[in-house]
Amino acid sequence: MSIPAVAVYDLSYAYPDGTEALRGITFTVEPGLAVALVGANGAGKSTLLQHLNGGLFNARQGEVRIGETVVSRKSVSLVRHAVGMVFQDSDDQLFMPTVAEDVAFGPLNAGLSSEEVERRVESALERVGMTQVRERPPYRLSAGEKRAVAIASVLAMEPEVLVMDEPSANLDPRARRRLIELLRSFGHTRIIATHDLELAVEVCSRVIVLDEGRVVADGPMVGILNDEALMEEHGLERPHILRHMHPHT
Ligand SMILES: Nc1ncnc2c1ncn2[C@@H]1O[C@H](COP(=O)(O)OP(=O)(O)O)[C@@H](O)[C@H]1O
Ligand SMILES: [Mg+2]
Questions:
Q1: Atom 3 of ligand 1, nearest CA residue
Q2: How high is the mean pLDDT of the chain?
Q3: Which pTM value belongs to this model?
Q4: Gap from CA of 194 to ligand 2 centroid (Å)
Q5: Residue whose CA is closest, atom 24 of ligand 1?
Q6: Number of folded domains in the chain?
Q7: Does the CB atom of residue 185 touch ligand 1 within 6 A?
Q8: Which of 169, 221, 226, 237 is the most exposed, fewest CB within 10 Å of its CB?
């Protein structure tokens, strides 16, 4: 059996003000799988994602592993190379004068040669279809372009796992459609927190439902999202596209 790409064991976390955001989360994700993380506002999605790339450390109990590496203060730089995080707000991710500099930022800091940095910038921008904006300031881009460039800046680190927080937030329909196709095309292990259940259905084969810091369902996408009682109980709606799909497919 292969080692899971991501493994979370009994993870609990409380913020310094005492808010218990995660209460005993356990799940594993096989390499290459796309998993949606859904749940009402405040369910703990963003807090969980931050634990996956060492943005937050477990304050109470439990463990997160990326491949064979246990996430800890010591392993954090290794973990951040392996796990690329696309933030909910692209403005938090892009801060350099030009797109190319933003995408080069991570590889440069990792100490790669200038040739290798340039190769990565070129390849990452091409992968997301953004080579034409490489010399533009990120703040002038549309929301869809910003999101694509933020994804490129993560791809440039060549991570094994992609973690995304609400990637379709604030995108117009065309940009959202492009994003969905892009996310479907990746071979990375993907963990995507989203309120956009239609995106989840199109990109992910599995869904984890969180409520009040606990995993309340984990399994194949269509079966869980079709469970109207479960969805309602946890503040979610059965996505519209499933209404047009045969219940047993
Ligand atoms: N910085 C913080 N300090 C204190 N509580 C927080 C902080 N960030 C989030 N929380 C709380 O932790 C819980 C989980 O929040 P979050 O992970 O943001 O949920 P989601 O992303 O599912 O909306 C909520 O009760 C939220 O109010
Ligand atoms: Mg959130």
A1: 15
A2: 93
A3: 0.94
A4: 8
A5: 42
A6: 1
A7: no
A8: 237
